[in-house]
Amino acid sequence: MGVHVGACVLFLFQLSSLVLGEVLPLPPFDVTQKDLQQKLSLGNINLDVPALYVFGDSFVDAGNNNYLKTKAKADHPPYGSDFGGKATGRNTNGRLAVDFIAKVAGLPYAPPALGMSEADKKNTVTGVNYASASSGVLPEPPQMEALMGDVLSFDEQIALFEKTTENLKSQFSTQNMSKSLFFIHSASNDFGLVWMLANKDHFTPEAYASYVADELSKRLQKLYALGARKFLVNNVSPLGCQPYNIMQQKPTTACVEEMNQRITAYNKLLPKVLSNLQSKLHGSTFVLGDLYKIFEDVVASPDSYGFTNVKDACCFTDLGKGTVICTPQSVPCQDRNAHVYYDPFHPTERMHLIWATRLLKDSSVVSPMTLVQLLQA
């Protein structure tokens, strides 16, 4: 899905009139479900979604890493500068895509699993967030653990979800679980740090893409066995266009093409992986979110989405020169709504809003149905 960003920026600019651009003002922090649906032009929709379960990495981590011995934390200002001024562990200035989706569905934000009390674990039936920054589809290799510390692997996230199902057996029926949304954003770290640290000398890019796709399939089947039926699975965004990778590698093109090509090889495999799963797992629905294309469209036509800066981190320190996460001493830019990236790796709240909105209603980046249609199915 998608084409290489750096090589095709000019072509995409020429086609920008065909790109679905929508300048979305950020809704108030206390926006209601109906007001948000109206602001996103979703129409008069009724959704019956009992719960939202979130798995993945730092793009969707709501604070699990706050409770782990890891360097991959966003538990300090200026993270959360637009989340009531509170750093919750979200790797951005405000809300995440999954927060907006929860609000549209009439659900509270899914709490981080590791921050829940024993009472909460037995009584929270509206969903849980298991995501962990720096995690991937594959188990964390020793080199990664030495660099980043302890994070929740996908397998560990699934194990936590299994405990959730055990805790809620008396309150949450199989039918309710089958109506719940399982939101997956993983594999980015497999194609970023894990590839560089542990796997580039052992796989060709194509073989590695196939390996990660197969491992993802196994884990999605585990979730199905535990009761999951409705899946939204995102592909990997163009990491070669992240400020960190641009600053580190200084490509002659707009982005680091070698990295984006590896990611594209994986992204091309996902449609068949999900289609095969749906054909053999009775009652399942797998929807693919093309996050690569969402970023690609914004890079191609930033003005049509209200952005003026697609390559620089909003949180920028002289020490890191755009290559480290926001430090407690750093001050974020004033025009963060105009930036795609908040820190060298992670999108701003406004980019999260665009991600959520396009998944909800734009069939050009989500297939075989929109997220609203999946939630209504």
List keywords for this structure.
40% helix, disordered N terminus, six-stranded mixed β-sheet, 377 residues, single chain, alpha/beta, two-stranded parallel ribbon, Rossmann fold
Structure description:
- There is one protein chain.
- The chain has 377 residues and is an alpha/beta fold.
- It has one domain: Rossmann fold, CATH 3.40.50.1110.
- It contains 15 helices and 8 strands.
- The protein has helices spanning 5-14, 33-39, 97-104, 118-123, 142-148, 154-167, 174-179, 188-191, 193-199, 205-225, 243-249, 257-280, 291-300, 349-361, 371-376, and strands at residues 52-56, 127-129, 181-185, 230-234, 285-289, 309-313, 339-341, 366-367.
- A 6-stranded mixed beta sheet has the order 2-1-3-4-5-8.
- Helix 1 (5-14) crosses helix 13, helix 3 packs across helix 14 and helix 10 runs parallel beside helix 12 (257-280).
- The longest helix is centred in the last third of the chain and has 24 residues, at 257-280.
- The chain is globular, with a radius of gyration of 19 Å.
- The model is unreliable at 1-19 (pLDDT under 50).
- Keywords: Hydrolase, Lipid degradation, Lipid metabolism, Secreted, Signal.
- One of its GO terms (biological process) is lipid catabolic process.
- GO terms for molecular function: hydrolase activity, acting on ester bonds.
- It is found in: Secreted.
- Belongs to the 'GDSL' lipolytic enzyme family.
